[in-house]
Design brief:
The chain has 339 residues and is an alpha/beta fold. The chain has two domains: 21-130 and 309-338, Alpha-Beta Complex (Quinone Oxidoreductase, Chain A, domain 1), CATH 3.90.180.10; 145-285, NAD(P)-binding Rossmann-like Domain (Rossmann fold), CATH 3.40.50.720. Helices cover 27% and strands 22% of the residues. The protein has nine helices and 13 strands. It has helices at residues 33-40, 88-91, 133-152, 172-182, 194-203, 215-223, 240-249, 292-303, 319-327; strands spanning 21-31, 55-63, 75-78, 117-121, 125-127, 162-166, 186-191, 207-210, 230-235, 250-258, 283-285, 311-315, 334-338. Helix 5 (194-203) links the parallel strand 7 and strand 8. The chain is globular, with a radius of gyration of 20 Å.
């Protein structure tokens, strides 16, 4: 990103690994909607110029001083968050809740993976063995973020309950698979695209509903009328129409997890004598990414054949085109850049 909103391919020196770091030869990097938010952010919010790309897998090229446990040729996925390391959240392993560096990370506050090489702290690496790197890269966000959200709702995802997943894109199609692999819930997938709904069905969704004016009624036909409803709703879009759908189908005492960042607003107004904007006893959470321990579990699911990213690959020189296709909603599954 050479200026706000501008992505272009330029030549830069190959970076060198410092103490505690490794130089990773990038094998694959996922294109994420979060990158579009970085591109669209006002000047000064993120460093410029910066190499984007936070969803990274690659091969260790060289190791810097004071690095143990990694050698050239090792294949790894990158945990992209870099917290302060000192606050209570970081010390407990919740760097996604860092109190001092809330948006610190590779491809966000320092150069990322949309390049042939990237330098990362060795502490951010997780071994992926012989896994296809175009599969390993999406696990680090498209897999980790819904996994973390599902972990937050684990108490409500009991056998026989229902979970509605709104938005079957890069994260949503992984959410469906994680629910299939780790729960016994009924999964209802919602999207505007018939192709996305077909993907959800292939990934294990029990019911699919096309988004639109009749979506709430169709979901209610599955989950039941108020005060019943969906025990958990994952909104992986976060636009106004999806948030409106989410709050109208969640059950009393249910849980809404707002994963997408599309700019919608969720009204919360408990008023006596009027229908509440969200049902009574409903909890709302805004998950962010996930923990490194959770990423290790996501990788284990993938190694066990229970998690597979539906990917569309692009060479590095076509990265700007990949992001424009993502912005237009033309990518189903995950776009992955392969240097």
């Amino acid at each position: 990103m050479t200026s706000p909103g501008v992505l272009e391919q330029v030549d830069v020196p190959t970076p060198e690994a410092g103490p505690g770091e490794v130089l990773l030869r990038v094998g694959a990097v996922g294109a994420c909607h979060s990158d579009l938010h970085v591109l669209d952010a006002p000047e000064g919010m993120f460093p410029i110029p910066i190499t984007l790309g936070h969803e990274i897998a690659g091969t260790v090229d060289t190791v810097g001083p004071a690095v143990d446990g990694w050698s050239p040729g090792n294949r790894a996925a990158v945990y992209g968050i870099i917290g302060c390391g000192h606050c209570r959240a970081c010390l407990r392993g919740h760097e996604n809740q860092c109190k001092l560096v809330p948006l610190g990370g590779i491809g966000i506050s320092r150069d990322g993976g949309l390049a042939e090489y990237v330098v990362v702290p060795a502490s951010r690496l997780l071994n992926v063995g012989d896994m296809d790197l175009t599969q390993a890269a999406p696990l680090t966000d498209a897999g980790l973020t819904p996994y973390h959200a599902i972990e937050l709702a684990r108490e409500k995802l009991r056998p026989g309950t229902t979970c509605v997943v709104i938005g079957i894109g890069g994260l949503g199609h992984m959410a469906v698979q994680i629910l299939v692999a780790t729960t016994a819930v009924r999964i209802v997938a919602v999207d505007t695209s018939v192709a996305a709904l077909d993907l959800a069905s292939r990934m294990g969704a029990h019911d699919v509903v096309q988004a639109g004016p009749e979506a709430v009624d169709k979901i209610r036909a599955i989950v039941g009328p108020p005060p019943d409803g969906a025990d958990v709703v994952l909104d992986v879009v976060g636009a106004q129409p999806t948030l409106d759908t989410a709050r109208q189908v969640v059950a009393t005492g249910g849980q809404l997890l707002l994963i997408g960042l599309a700019g919608g607003t969720l009204p919360v107004r408990p008023v006596a004598g009027e229908p509440p904007t969200i049902p009574l006893e409903t909890s709302v959470q805004v998950p962010f990414w996930g923990t490194q321990a959770e990423l290790q579990e996501v990788i284990a699911l993938a190694k066990g054949g229970q998690l597979h990213a539906d990917v569309q690959t692009f060479p590095l020189e076509q990265a700007p085109e990949a992001y424009e296709a993502l912005r237009r909603g033309e990518i189903h599954g995950r776009a992955v850049i392969v240097p």
